Amino acid sequence: MTAPEPGPGGLVPDGPGIAVPERGAWLRRGISRDGGPLVEDREVVWLQAGSYYADSRGFAGTTSFDGSQVHFHHLTGEPGEDAGTFRRDGANLVERGTNTDGSTFLEIWTPLPAADGACGSWSGPDHHVVRVGRHVVHVDSGAGTYWRL
């Protein structure tokens, strides 16, 4: 079996997805919507601690993996659920998926430094917090907020 040839931008075409790491702090390096150009319009941080995640865009909850796609179950903040197929591109994670409105996306996630050390997830009425090393994301019904300790 031979490896697929890289496509545009050096990315390998889609294949079976992988589960996301159980622990990680990730900075989004770019997003392509509906096949458009890869751009970044704001700082987006995603933290993963076990099956719990928090995204600085304003949603948090749990992840599950069905053998092909990772499902993000939104439990706090912005309602919904989304799914994506992940694969590695060096140290980065490349995510491709479809939103509930049928639009598609491709996101490039780069690991953040200083992700070793304390790690955990806490929730309460209308909020969820995930910490991975020096990175913290807090999500409530109003917004998501990222801090670096």
How are the secondary structure elements laid out?
Layout: E1 23-33, E2 45-49, E3 52-55, E4 59-65, E5 70-77, E6 81-89, E7 92-98, E8 104-111, E9 119-124, E10 127-132, E11 135-140, E12 144-148
Antiparallel strand pairs: 1-2, 1-8, 2-3, 3-4, 4-5, 5-6, 6-7, 7-8, 9-10, 10-11, 11-12
Q: What's the overall geometry?
A: globular
- Uncertain stretches of 5 or more adjacent residues: 1-13
Our measurement of the CA-to-CA distance between the termini, rounded to an integer number of angstroms, reads: 45 Å
What is the N-to-C succession of helices and strands?
EEEEEEEEEEEE
Portion in strands: over 45%
Structural class: mainly beta
Task: Walk me through what this model shows.
The structure is a single chain. The chain is mostly beta strands and 149 residues long. Helix content is 0%, strand content 55%. Strands 1-2-3-4-5-6-7-8 form an eight-stranded antiparallel beta barrel. A four-stranded antiparallel sheet has the order 9-10-11-12, with no helix packed on it.
